[in-house]
Design goal:
The protein has about 280 residues and is α+β, with helices and mostly antiparallel strands. It is built from 7 helices and 11 strands. Helix 1 packs parallel to helix 7 and helix 6 packs across helix 7.
């Protein structure tokens, strides 16, 4: 899934590469996916987008916004898959779900994995949307240790769900998914099942730092290595705790890295370091 470092990387590349291009045609590909949601029919997307110039791109947490003309935007949200740019003359992938053709004969395709939505909205609609820009992105100025502490206290399920629930499934923070979560908790030396009321102020402080450091490092490296950027290049961030390192020695203590299932997904952790 696209998490904040990937959203930052891809939106930055969109801004640089796509700004100024004019939309010729929007279409669906040969693939259909029941967990791909559009906000209108493909014909309506095509009618609204055709002739519009791309005016920029940005990201907010895990969301990517591609601005179309002065009034509209495409919102790529909560999604996994490949958003790829194809310059003129480069063959398109054999299979994809969505396709944007530009007047200079370049294209962009989207191939969904898991689920996600690509909504076409008026910019004023985004501001009113209940799921838009919910939660603080981890590198925002608003994400201070004090605010983090406050958010932990406000989490309604703090006595029921472990810290994983707060970081990944709550609406308090926007940007972390199940992939970076593993490294964040390893760096903070916390077990994913730890309940918030048991966290000392020092542990909270270390967790806040682990979130910011992990996100900043991954952004610097262009996202993680099992994801692709707009040009189909893998990111440079190698995860410490993942399905690739399970069963290998922990980099800090040598205990074998363990996999557990918790809150609807796998967790990879060091049972010695993370308590
Ligand atoms: Zn360890």
């Amino acid at each position: 899934m696209i998490e904040m470092p990937e959203a930052v990387t891809i939106s930055g590349q969109m801004q640089e590469t796509l700004t100024g291009k004019t939309m010729l045609h929007f279409s669906r590909g040969q693939l259909v996916h029941k967990f791909l949601w559009l906000s209108k029919t493909a014909e309506e997307y095509d009618a609204i987008l055709s002739g519009k110039q791309i005016t920029g791109a940005s990201s907010y947490g895990r969301s990517i916004y591609l601005y179309m003309g002065e009034e509209h935007l495409l919102w790529f949200g909560e999604l996994g898959g490949r958003i790829l740019y194809h310059p003129q003359g480069q063959p398109l992938p054999v299979k994809y779900h969505l396709r944007w053709d530009f007047t200079d004969d370049s294209s962009m395709t989207f191939n969904l994995q898991m689920w996600g939505f690509v909504s076409l909205l008026e910019r004023s609609e985004l501001a009113k949307h209940p799921y838009a820009e919910v939660g603080i992105p981890p590198l925002s100025d608003r994400f201070t240790p004090e605010r983090f502490d406050q958010l932990l206290e406000e989490y309604p399920e703090k006595t029921k769900k472990g810290i994983k629930g707060f970081l990944v499934t709550s609406k308090h923070i926007n940007g972390i998914g199940n992939s970076y979560l593993q490294d964040i908790l390893f760096r903070a030396k916390l077990h994913p099942t730890r309940k918030i009321p048991t966290l000392s102020s020092n542990e909270r402080f270390k967790l806040h730092a682990a979130i910011q450091n992990t996100m900043a490092e991954a952004i610097k490296l262009g996202g993680r290595e099992d994801e692709r950027d707009l040009f189909d290049h893998p990111g440079g961030y190698t995860r410490l705790m993942s399905n690739q390192t399970v069963g290998q020695p922990c980099p800090d203590c040598g205990t074998l890295i363990q996999k557990i299932s918790y809150l609807g997904g796998a967790c990879y952790l060091c049972p010695t370091c993370q308590v």
